[in-house]
Amino acid sequence: MDQARAVDARSGLLTQNGSHRVVTYSRAYTLVPTYECFNRCTYCNFRVDPGHSPWLSLEHVAQQLPTLRRQGVCEVLVLSGEVAPSSPRRDDWFCHIYQICALALEAGLLPHTNAGPLSRDEMAHLRQVNVSMGLMVEQVTPKLLDTVHRHAPSKRPEARLQQLAWAGELGIPFTTGLLLGLGESEADWVDSLGAIATLQTRYGHIQEVILQPHSPGQQQLQPGMSLDEAALVRAVHLARECLPPEVAIQIPPNLVSHQGLLDCLTAGARDLGGISPVDEVNPDYEHPTPESLEDAIAPSGWQLQPRLPVYAQYDSWLPEPMRSLVQSWRNSLSYL
Ligand SMILES: O=c1nc2n(C[C@H](O)[C@H](O)[C@H](O)CO)c3cc(O)ccc3cc-2c(=O)[nH]1
Ligand SMILES: C[C@H]1O[C@@H](n2cnc3c(N)ncnc32)[C@H](O)[C@@H]1O
Ligand code: SF4
């Protein structure tokens, strides 16, 4: 096996199909339990003040899910604003998220939750109703606690890394990543990638790392600059050097130009993440359709392939009955 294919190889999967190299994405729909958040990250276009976002109604969710299933959606991305760990409302918030995941599973869909840092106990519970979970490291440098994260206690680097370690201990297939362009240096990227690589070497649970270029929107507390695409391509190169080869690099296709996307693929990115009707985190940037993505990358020899929100090498980690549900998805269509 030559060097390029060795780097591409994800255990048990062929990433090369004839002469076409494979790029994956997940057919997702995002549910937002609540937009309320006790953190105030200055770049956030998602949050509203605590008490000002009605929680998503479970009845509405139960009604919506069968339609999504018929439309060919496989992933329910549960993305939430946060109630403080010390709040008397924390337990209700957590139960609400758990119930949304349980309803998604009942409808035959596959939940992936990113609801900020959770306690170990909360993670152990959510593991029963999620095929994978996620939390961005953002950046490990403490400098950002004096700037964009000054009013965001959830963004303390130790809390984020602790979460990744607990996910590893609990055997949860995990998605993490870096938010790029917050005022950090490229040396800081290497530190953040190194921290993720160390955890991956220890636990082997990191299925993918998202390289997320900061993208200013209309709702954020403070204006910010978007990351330039040449810098994003350098980040992909660095990530491919720092991370073990089995970890996929994900680029959000709505936050880059077509040429930027092709350059990221050449540099080693192989996944485009969950593609849903609305990017709830960056609502000013519409997700492209899978068809338009295929048109953009096929002339350069790339083939777009849907995948499930859990990568195949982790299927045996899943508790029943989720493991059987995932198996039936893999049998029904050629999902990676
Ligand atoms: O549409 C989006 N999906 C986002 N996702 C979804 C993600 O692409 C998929 O859920 C996973 O790849 C699993 O299929 C995230 C998931 C995480 O675990 C952590 C961060 C993100 C960030 C985004 C995002 O900004 N926009
Ligand atoms: C869910 C993830 O979305 C990312 N996130 C939050 N706000 C923005 C933005 N303006 N641009 C890009 N990514 C953002 C953070 O990395 C968070 O952890
Ligand atoms: S990025 Fe997440 S933690 Fe930060 S304010 Fe927005 S919702 Fe809250």
UniProtKB/TrEMBL annotation:
Amino acids binding [4Fe-4S] cluster: 37, 41, 44
Cofactor descriptive note: Binds 1 [4Fe-4S] cluster. The cluster is coordinated with 3 cysteines and an exchangeable S-adenosyl-L-methionine.
Cofactor: [4Fe-4S] cluster
Domain Radical SAM core: 23-254
One Pfam family per UniProt: Radical_SAM
Catalysed reaction equations from the record: 5-amino-5-(4-hydroxybenzyl)-6-(D-ribitylimino)-5,6-dihydrouracil + S-adenosyl-L-methionine = 7,8-didemethyl-8-hydroxy-5-deazariboflavin + 5'-deoxyadenosine + L-methionine + NH4(+) + H(+)
Statement: the UniProt record of this protein carries the keyword S-adenosyl-L-methionine: yes
Record keywords: 4Fe-4S, Iron, Iron-sulfur, Lyase, Metal-binding, S-adenosyl-L-methionine
Pathway per the UniProt entry: Cofactor biosynthesis; coenzyme F0 biosynthesis
Role summary: Catalyzes the radical-mediated synthesis of 7,8-didemethyl-8-hydroxy-5-deazariboflavin (FO) from 5-amino-5-(4-hydroxybenzyl)-6-(D-ribitylimino)-5,6-dihydrouracil.
Subunit annotation: The FO synthase complex consists of two subunits, CofG and CofH.
Family affiliation: Belongs to the radical SAM superfamily. CofG family.
Name the record gives this protein: 7,8-didemethyl-8-hydroxy-5-deazariboflavin synthase
Organism: Phormidium tenue NIES-30
